[in-house]
Design a protein that fits this description.
alpha/beta; 239 residues; 6-stranded parallel sheet; 36% helix; 6 strands; Rossmann fold
């Protein structure tokens, strides 16, 4: 009787050399105890959509962020008279949107503060909370940067946090020299992100729902189901 063939053992994956630094900036900071970099993406999130998620991940990828906070606004000052969905629904949708991505986290800092939701106040509060343990990076799209002088205290905001500016259809990223003309030496704290721009907006999604059209793949599936179950956005907007 012939001898049984020896069992084949799968080769072990080589262990990472602890003396060799990892290529992931966030992991490298964790190993060395360096200051963490946390992104902050504010918005009404009415509803949150894949454009928000893409922008958050684009900034994290290009700048090596350890985490990105999605910060729903309680009373967005720039929305004027437009009626927005109630805060609880918007927070729940945002939680559903990020549930599959451990990089992302919801911050309720604006929901828990009374008065208009000014970004500079929120970033200042976050900076006071974290202290010197983190470096904050405010994430925005190019159209928001183009209107930055309508925001409250933009120069102080840039002093509090670096900015990461993503592409937006219809609004080109600014030239570096124009940023220097406006912000001077502080312009070095503004990072222009390169990557695909998604032509998706919350207002367009609301209009599609109101007209009975599909929003599949424009929002995460759980958000789509939430909108359907709640009967949200079925009436056309007046503004």
């Amino acid at each position: 009787m012939s001898a049984a063939a020896p069992a084949r053992v799968a080769p072990k994956a080589p262990a990472r050399d602890a003396s060799r630094p990892t290529s992931d900036p966030a992991a490298r900071r964790q190993e060395t105890g360096a200051v963490r970099r946390i992104g902050v993406l504010g918005g009404t999130f009415d509803p949150p959509h894949v454009g928000h998620l893409w922008l958050a991940n684009l900034a994290a990828d290009e700048l090596g962020l350890d985490r990105v906070l999605l910060m729903p606004a309680a009373r967005p000052p720039h929305k004027g008279a437009r009626r927005i969905s109630n805060a609880a629904d918007r927070v729940l949708m945002t939680r559903l949107a990020i549930s599959a991505d451990p990089l992302l986290e919801v911050s309720l800092i604006e929901m828990e503060r009374s008065g208009p939701s000014y970004t500079v106040d929120s970033v200042a509060e976050l900076q006071a909370t974290y202290g010197g343990e983190v470096q904050l990076v405010l994430i925005m799209a190019a159209d928001q940067l183009s209107a930055i002088d309508t925001w409250r205290e933009p120069d102080r905001l840039l002093d509090l946090a670096e900015w990461a500016v993503g592409p937006r259809p219809g609004t080109p990223l600014p030239e570096r020299r124009s940023l220097v003309q406006r912000f001077g030496a502080a312009a070095r704290r503004i990072h222009l992100l390169s990557g695909p721009s998604l032509d998706i907006s919350s207002s367009a999604i609301r209009r599609r729902v109101a007209s009975g059209r599909s929003i599949r793949y424009l929002v995460p599936r759980a958000v789509e189901e939430f909108i359907q179950d709640r009967g949200m956005y079925r009436r056309s907007e007046r503004s």
